[in-house]
Amino acid sequence: MTTAAAVRPASIEEAAAAIADLAVVRPAGAGSRAEWGGSDPAGAVTVHTGGLDRIVAHNPGDFTAIVQAGVPLADLQRHLAREGQWLALDPPDRGGTVGGLVATADSGPARHRYGGVRDLVIGITAVLGDGAVARSGGTVIKNVAGYDLGKLFAGSYGTLGLVAQVAVRLHPLPAGTATVVATTDDPAALTAAVLAMSRHPLEALSLDVLWRAGEGRLLVRFGGVTAAARAEAATRLLTGVDVTVVRDDESIWAAQRAAQRGAAVVKVSALPTDLPAVLAAAGPATVVSRAALGVSWLSFPAGDDLATRVAAARTALAPRPTVVLDGARLVEQPWPAPDPGMLALMRRVKERFDPTATFRPGAYVGGI
Amino acid sequence: MDGHELVERLRRVVGDRWLLLDAHDLRTYESDGLLQYQQVPRLAVLPGTGDEVRECVAACAQAGVPWVARGAGSGLSGGALPVKDGVLIVLSRLNRILEVDLDNGRVCVEPGVTNAAVSTAVAPDFFYPPDPSSQIVCTIGGNVAENSGGAHCFKYGFTTNYVTGLEVVLPDGAVVTIGGKELDPPGYDLLGAFVGSEGTLGVATKIWLRVVPVPEATRTLVAFFDSTRQAGEAVSAIVQAGIVPGAIEMMDATTIRATEEMAHAGYPVGRGAALLVELDGAEAECDAQFAQVTDICAAEGSDDVRVSRDEAERALFWKTRKAAFPAMGRISPNYFVQDGVVPRTTLPDVLVRIDELAAEYGLTVANVFHAGDGNLHPLVCFDAAVEGQAARAEELAGRILDVCLEAGGSITGEHGVGVDKRKHMAKMFGEDDLAAFQRLRCAFDPEGRANPGKVMPTPRLCGEVPGVYRQHPLEAAGLAERF
Question: Where would I find the FAD-binding PCMH-type domain in this sequence (chain A) (predicted)?
Fold first, then answer.
């Protein structure tokens, strides 16, 4: 039995050998989301993915890449950009790795157009508790052979196994961008603007809301050679809000991504039409919403009564499920209580994949 | 519960009319769309509600009887092939659209609703993008089981990208709601695991789907080339230019000839390849990119680019493409439809390799494919009346999958593994991979009752968790192996 508190395998084989010898494992990337999920038990050995640092393949003609878990997302994007491509995932960047991104299924504004981690991972290689190295999917963008374990591992928070390597679908970088910015302090008008936009075939890259200190902004980003013209055209769909088009829009979106983090962040799953209720429940928190998807992040600044403010917001959002991401340590339970039937099924999945309870026991939904 | 008790219990659940015991009635269900496999089930039930489905599954669980769920039976991998001593649960009566909520871009349907009916229910402003060729008859429940794609999935994605929630009856008879109308339910993504699981994890009785606005503009062209290699280069050039067409479909010379006899679209018989490219989206972007695509086709060697002038002509282009499978019946008494995937850039070399194999076997292989995502549908032609030719054709179809795997592809892009491709699974996946699949299967269905004998290459047993080894009767009889 290995006694070190941390190991740093340099290959998937080394990771498998190390994990087979460990009783309790906590996979870790760059630590940019280290706080997320429940607490790990004392004695958990951290398996750092930093040594799994290879971009194994980039096939520009096929718009695919194979990348190991420890590669920082920013490094991967720089590599892909040389061919005018990217992995269309843009979570707030604090140096996080591809593996951490997959394990937490984190996302950014590009999710509106391209989907999330689950939609872009086309193959996965995972190390299980007994050291087995299991693959699912492949390296082609269309494939229905076998079960899709990539989706199962996406967002599993390292509780089923170590995500060691993924194959991903890539997209072309947009030729140009422009963003419609609509401003209002009226939640009803803001929601009406969101629904007006989301019912039209705009093919926007992103459709986000930012709500801060009683002021709301709808941000709709267009990409392609005609981005600016389409943004101008889209403004005609909006009434009752102040509208401008911003062509040099990168800073707007950098700020929007940054607002998705905070001293405490509560993520809520809702519907687009729930936006007024979500804004009301947020109180003084800043809200970032993928408005056409209904997924929002409430971001709270630091302060003495932070835990109380988070708890109040979660209560106000109920019965919508909420997860505390940043600031998870402030609360007793960062996860919502799952439906008993789903919990039983998820437990069975955990028991089959990790029968020895090696991976982060107790850190997941329902104490899994 | 003995066999008689099971029958009586099922009779009470669905009523006399919807319980089929007679061999003649059951014959209707002996095959799905893949006719070379036939198996009459012990009995069939046609429940009328989700609750009746649950009761049927619970009755099977108590009686220890395996079952298979079936939608329209249009699948092409034998995924809905009945089990000899099992119950067939036919879902065609569960055909209600339960909710349409366009503000939130959602519909909720029962599994027996057809794929096309979903788009009809949200027309004219919205549509449901996955569009398998069988969309007029195939059901959403079957699409969920198979993770169906279609011609437009290169741009729009597959069934799995559109399902947000499922009410599922698990093989033990319990009902769970996985996901729902909202996205990102906290916990394992069991939706992702269930969609495409080919009926082996349970049966969906209610399905929430995402629908999207109908694109502002659609532009369609067909370009003819001297060879599939040339057409393949054009596809590469289009995609490399950063254009993501709604669809890019290719037909080879044999397919052009066969479809022209049927669809009479005025296609030049004798040309090496036809490329159908459809762009959709915002009108301005669409027009800009369409001009680019037209130029690329010319630059890559097409001297015959036909742009659809109206909806009628566009429909004719698609009719011709979709006629490819049935049209093959005009040039060959029988054919197998293969379904393989290769990385798109390997297409030209793979097609040469397929031609070489066809010559080696002395058989004709026509090629029609979703070129954008490298999904090939080689049609292996044969004459069943000629002794041994069917077997040779089947062997050739298998060799084509080997070529796909050697190129870094997959044994199936959209038809599924079913019974037909079980034997190829071990070529694509290793022991640890298959064992991981089995872990998922056992979490949902430890007794192996839901659609047994599909997907996995050999029957496997689950064992206890945590496992104290006990020999299973099937294992003792040498009929299954344990992991």
Answer: 1-173
Query: Is A146 in Cβ contact with B455 (below 8 Å)?
Result: yes
ipTM: 0.97
Report how far residue A221's alpha carbon sits from residue A203's, in angstroms, rounded to the nearest whole number. Answer: 9
Residues A102 and A146 in one domain: yes
Taking 90 as the threshold, does the pLDDT of residue A87 lie above it?
Answer: yes
Contact A290, A109 (CB under 8 A): yes
Bridge partners of A48, per DSSP, are: A28
Q: Is B435 on the interface with A (CB under 8 A)?
A: yes
Burial letters for B45-77: b for 16+ Cβ neighbours within 10 Å, e otherwise? bbbbebebbbbbbbbbbebebbbbbbbbbbbbb
CATH number of the domain within which B235 lies: 3.30.70.2190
Same domain, B131 and B197: yes
Helix (H) or strand (E) run with residue A267 in it: strand A264-269
**How far, in Å, CA of A157 to CA of B199, rounded?**
27
DSSP H/E element including B389: helix B389-406
**Residue A202: closest C-alpha in chain B:** B282
pTM for this one? 0.96
pLDDT tens column, B63-90: 999 999 999 999 999 999 999 999 999 9
Could you give the number of structural domains in chain B? 5
Distance CA B435, CA A126 (A): 13
Claim to verify: residue A188 and residue A271 sit in the same structural domain: no
Q: Are A35 and A85 within one domain? A: yes
Same domain, A153 and A298: no
Task: Report the phi/psi class of residue B72: left, alpha or beta, with left for phi > 0 and alpha for psi in -120 to 50.
Answer: alpha
Does residue B376 contact residue B404 with C-beta atoms inside 8 Å? yes
Strand pairing category for B87-90 and B43-45: parallel
* Whether residue B221 sits in one domain with residue B207: no
Q: From the list A140, A202, A350, which residue is nearest B341 (CB)?
A: A140
- Name all contacts of B309-317 with Cβ < 8 Å and 24+ positions apart: B314/B218, B314/B220, B314/B278, B316/B263, B316/B265, B317/B220, B317/B222, B317/B265, B317/B276
Q: Is the peptide bond before B124 cis (omega within 30 degrees of 0)?
A: yes
pLDDT tens digits, B131-180? 998 999 999 999 999 999 999 999 999 999 999 999 999 999 999 999 99
Gap between the Cα atoms of A203 and A350, Å rounded: 38
Share of chain B residues as helix, strand and coil, in percent rounded to the nearest 5: 40, 20, 40
Q: How many CA atoms lie within 13 A of B287 on its CB side?
A: 5
Question: The CATH number of the domain where A285 resides is what?
Answer: 3.30.70
Among A115, A155, A172, beta carbon nearest to B242? A172
Judge: A136–B433 Cβ closer than 8 Å, yes or no.
yes
Q: Within 10 Å of residue B40's Cβ, how many Cβ atoms?
A: 18
Question: What's the pLDDT tens digit per position in B402-459?
Answer: 999 999 999 999 999 999 999 999 999 999 999 999 999 999 999 999 999 999 998 8
Distance spanning both ends of chain A, measured CA to CA: 24
**B207 plus B232 within the same structural domain:** no
User: How far apart are the C-alpha atoms of B483 and B474, rounded to whole Å?
Assistant: 14
* Alpha carbon distance A218, A183 (integer Å): 6
Interface-testing mutation among B168, B287, B439, B456, with chain A (most A C-beta atoms within 10 A) = B439
Token pair for residue B422?
Answer: 């079980």
pLDDT at B60 over 80: yes
CB B322: neighbour CB atoms within 10 A?
18
Do A138 and B153 count as a contact with CB atoms less than 8 A apart?
A: no
Domain match, B344 and B274 both: no
For an interface test with B, which of A142, A180, A198, A364 has the most B Cβ atoms less than 10 Å from its Cβ?
A142
SS3 content of chain A, % helix, strand, coil (to 5): 30, 25, 45
